Amino acid sequence: MALLEVRGLKKNFTGKNETLHAVKGIDFTIEEGECLGLVGESGCGKSTTANMTARLLKESEGDIFFLGKRINGGKRLCAAGKEMQMVFQNPADSFNPHYSVLECVMQGARYYKLYSKSELKERAMEWIKYVGLKESYLEKKIGELSGGECQRTAIARALICNPALIICDEATSALDVSVQAQVVELIRKLKEEKKVSFLFITHDLALTSSVCDRIAVMYSGRIVEMGETKAILQHPMHPYTQLLLSCVLPAVGDDEYRVPECSSFRGAGDGCDFYEFCPKICTQCKDRVPDLQEREGRMTACFQRGDPDE
Amino acid sequence: MKRKKTEEISFYILIGLIVILLLAALLAPVLAPNDPFKTELTLALIKPDKEFPLGTDPLGRCVLSRILYGARVSIFSSLCIIGIVFFIGTAIGVTAGYLGGAVDMVLTKIITIMQAFPKFILAIAIAGVLGIGIKNTILALCLVEWAEYARISRNLSRGVKQRTYIKAAKVCGESRLQIMFHHVLPNVLPTLVVNASLGISSMIMEVAALSYLGVGVKSPMSEWGAMMNIGKDYLQTETRLVIIPGIAIFVVSVLFNLFGDKLRDILDR
Q1: Which one of A56, A90, A154 has the shortest CB-CB distance to B170?
Q2: Count of other CB atoms within 10 angstroms of residue A192
Q3: Does domain B2-35+59-268 have CATH number 1.10.3720.10?
Q4: Which pLDDT tens digit goes with each residue over B101-154?
Q5: Which single residue of A139, A222, A292, B224 could bond A301 by disulfide (Cβ 3.0 to 4.6 Å)?
Q6: By the CB < 8 Å criterion, does B186 face chain A?
């Protein structure tokens, strides 16, 4: 059985005049020790999915199974428990500014009452060391730390409960490239040594290749393509994934490079959300939403499901 | 750096002055040269001399002794009101702001209704209905003042609620009550404390104003506003009867205002 199973998850935000369909029914699973990357442009519903999975946001429809138990459906939102932890995008803001580094890390396990007081402190110190922070940092206030150090503290806080799954919601987006690499390295180490699973949410495709085993590409609230990271990055099948990959700016200056036209169009009609921008549009695209179907070892939601070179 | 030090020194000087003031009020029975409640018509309206350093009032009571005793009522009743409204207002505001939804809607409506009344007129009406006396004055002012603190703490709490560390606390398994106590309250408290320290001076004036209007303290209890009320009939002949308690109110208000200002500067750093 999968560690995390998400089935038909939907989220609608109802405003005064209109309803925004932020997540339109997505399914995915994460196995033990696996890292699934959820990628897509801003506003495609990645963070909404993360928040629903972590039980910070109530879903409109769908089921979430974690460790074989359904964790949604209750009257009130309730944390999934010590087995599921989360690392947030803004590292400095994810801690109470009055707390010291030690208190921040201890916060992770204090309320689950896993350890005695002295044991809790010991464990916190162990994890602080594990994530690469010096012992002199213990009493420092969180405001005195750099972004990377804050994110390491956040990871230590998540780890103190020995979680089975850590949701990283754009955990590296606010960090500079060298610090990003350090955090990614730490996540890889955790995967290998502690067999922790990750739901890694990012808009940075390059990052997914170094951490994720599989990736799911989201567009306008739906997963449009899901499969092995390497296969998707090298041979994207869905026209949106192809477009997303071509949007990555070249590292070395290229005068020929042109930014492809792309926008977070949210189709309210019956057809595929992407058909207005799709270069491979066919007759069915306007009338029906393509299902996520398996082809060549991956899931794709496109009628064409064409070869990338087509 | 030098400015920071100067600020700190002036803050400690202010604290020192406030401590002296509070001690003077507390030690009034020791410091007062005469009995402040003893009326002796033969000693009425005596000019300041050795026995009565600030003279006597129309009933022959020592003005200096009454000022010292009055400090107890004015300062401690104001501190008491601020303490009560701070506690109630913060509790209601944080609950409304953090819980949101129907709880917030109901509590905010009550706060809005309370704030729609002209505060001082309502206080006069409540004190008038409840009867003269310091307890009723405190109660009347508490009833009209809590809404302001509730409004401020509610707005601050709503801001804190959006912060990522509240989400993180939820993931860490903290209950709503724990989040309110451990994360919301400590982060809204500094602003509320500054507001409360600035509110002490206006509270001293409100207590004095109620007493001046005759709905505050009961005679023969000494209170600065009540002293001004007695003095107003002798404004042209014995100006000191109004000026002395006026100066007392002014000095204490300025001291607490400066204290609040400095506290804000220090907490803002």
Answers
A1: A56
A2: 10
A3: yes
A4: 999 999 999 999 999 988 888 888 988 898 888 898 999 999 999 999 999 999
A5: A292
A6: yes
